[in-house]
Amino acid sequence: MTVVPPRWHGSTMPSTEAPAVIETRALTKVYPGNVTALDGLTVSVGPGVTGLVGANGAGKSTLIKILLGLIPPTKGQAKVLGHDCATNGPTIRALLGYMPEHDCLPPDVTATEFVTHMGRMSGLPPTVAKERAAESLRHVGLHEERYRLIGTYSTGMKQRVKLAQALVGDPRLLLLDEPTNGLDPAGRTAMLELIARIGSEFGISIVVASHLLGEIERICDQLVAIDAGRLLRADTITSFTQASQVLAVEVEEGLAQLQAELAARGLIATAVQRVLLVPLGGDDTYDVVRDAVADLALPLCRLEQRRHQVEELFRDEEVTHV
Amino acid sequence: MSEVQVGVIHDLGYRGYDGPRLGHAQIVRALVWHSFRSAFGIGRGVKAKIIPILACVAMCLPALVNAFAVAQGNARLFGYDVYTPALRVVVLIIFIAAQAPELVSRDLRSHVLPLYFSRPLRRGDYPLAKYIALTLACLLLIEVPLLILYVGTIVSAKSGSAVWSQTRALIPGLGVGLMWAVLIAAFGLVLASLTGRRAYATGIVAISCFLTWTLSLVLIQAEGGITATSTGARIAGLFSPFTILDGVRIWLGGTNQGEDANPGHFGPLYGLVAVLLLAACLGGLAARYRKVSRS
């Protein structure tokens, strides 16, 4: 029998006193052939929804495999819900739900059968597995279609089945690897809303790995950014977005004029091609830009908030550190 | 009926599960049962049931016919430990070539294994459960005809001693069946686990079985047949799992003369090769899934 810790009953802002869901210390993974996937990663993740961002090959999937206890770290230590990943793999996996990045569903069974079987494999008794499979599929929005063969599903529905099988064992922590992969914009939004709901209403901590910062920052309480196996930054979402959001201003003429005017008003704008990038401090930044443009009577054709891609985040880091 | 509310959607919200969870051994047992059922196409489509049913019918038919004949006062034709040697080999090859991929290649093909490995199962549990399931399926296929034959014979037995002699003949027969199931399941499963493409997996298993079996038979013939006593004829049976099994049976005192191998004083060698082959198959299976679980 597995002892299951109590569910996390969420507040939207994770407090620093809450016990860490994931904790790694100097975690290093070197694959045969001297390929370093993780390089001395030390990070602590609290309850709530956490975004794990990094470019492809940054070490996200390796980190997830170590957390699942599937591969041993070369050096260092990783703990999930207080259990050591290297020695307590089965215990940790009883508390985890994992949604892999790639396709992982057999086409020739119905969603109900498949999720029920996966529930059994998570350690649920037969009748409970059936009930929870139906419930998980309902939560992800597949109720009517659940008796259809998975092979007949659309990509969006398959992603939902993948999420349902992760949810079926009532995990304390969900590891979602690129959950919006292959979805159209509407499907992405729906999936993100679903994840946000699971995080806030279901009381399940979630780690979402993604290479699209702009996408997952909407639903995360905190972000962990890794690059080349190293920790880039780990912080709450507010401090992240404050540092990473910019306002793009495009005027038909008088770019240099506007830049000087903004500098006079205390905003350091950088000109990139025909656009001025202004660091977004708060709502008053919009007002300052609007007033500057109006006072100069310039033809404004674009004023938009831009989200940084992960790569830009790295550039920011380098600038602030150098 | 007045209290039935119409058009009200109850959102029950998320409900956790705080009840008992199965231990590791029970999860493995659930996987064994699930795989055992799918070895016979139960819980699958109609197509998945064709070969298991044909195999069962082909295996049981001679036993049924003979059991009926025995009830009419005729003799029992088939020995419990050999049954119908050529038919048994062919049916088992077809069954294992079709159903071993059903158990392992499907999961490889649809990349479903990460979902198993991210659950409380340990690394070796998945191949172990599949192996136990396929062994049980083969065992059922081999032993049921023997039991039909046995029941058909003792029903018309005239004395207690006749029943006892039948039982004494049956027990080694069941033992031989177990030996077959244990080795053939391992042999088929390790070959099928090499590829996720089901047709290839079936081909690999069928070709490996038929080719080695034919090779051994041809070599035995070339060395003068099963009655020949030359070293070549005696060790020619070591080239195929089926002739190895028959050699071990004869070495262990099989009642009937073998139809495939004739090991003579090389009997212990057949035993050793059988054990080594089993170890190699199971080791290969474990290594295969160690690799898969990390990728």
Oligomer: heterodimer
Average pLDDT taken over every residue of chain B = 90
**Percent of residues in beta strands of chain B:** under 5%
Given as residue ranges, the uncertain stretches of chain B (5+ residues, pLDDT < 50) are 1-5
Overview features:
A: 322 residues; Rossmann fold; Alpha-Beta Plaits; 4-stranded antiparallel sheet; 37% helix; B: 295 residues; 10 helices
Characterise this structure:
The complex is a heterodimer of chains A (about 325) and B (about 300). Chain A has about 325 residues and is α/β, with parallel strands linked by helices. Chain A has two domains: about 20-240, P-loop containing nucleotide triphosphate hydrolases (Rossmann fold), CATH 3.40.50.300; about 245-305, Alpha-Beta Plaits. Chain A has helices at about 60-65, 90-95, 110-120, 125-140, 155-165, 185-200, 215, 235-245, 255-265, 285-295, 310-320, and strands spanning about 20-30, 35-45, 50-55, 75-80, 85, 95-100, 175, 205-210, 220-225, 230-235, 245-250, 270, 275-280, 300-305. Chain A starts with about 20 loop residues before the first strand and ends with a helix. The relative contact order of chain A is 0.14. Chain B has about 300 residues and is mainly α. Helix content of chain B is about 70%, strand content about 0%. Chain B is built from ten helices and no strands. Chain B is globular, with a radius of gyration of 23 Å. Chains A and B meet through helix 2, helix 3 and helix 4 of A and helix 1 and helix 4 of B.
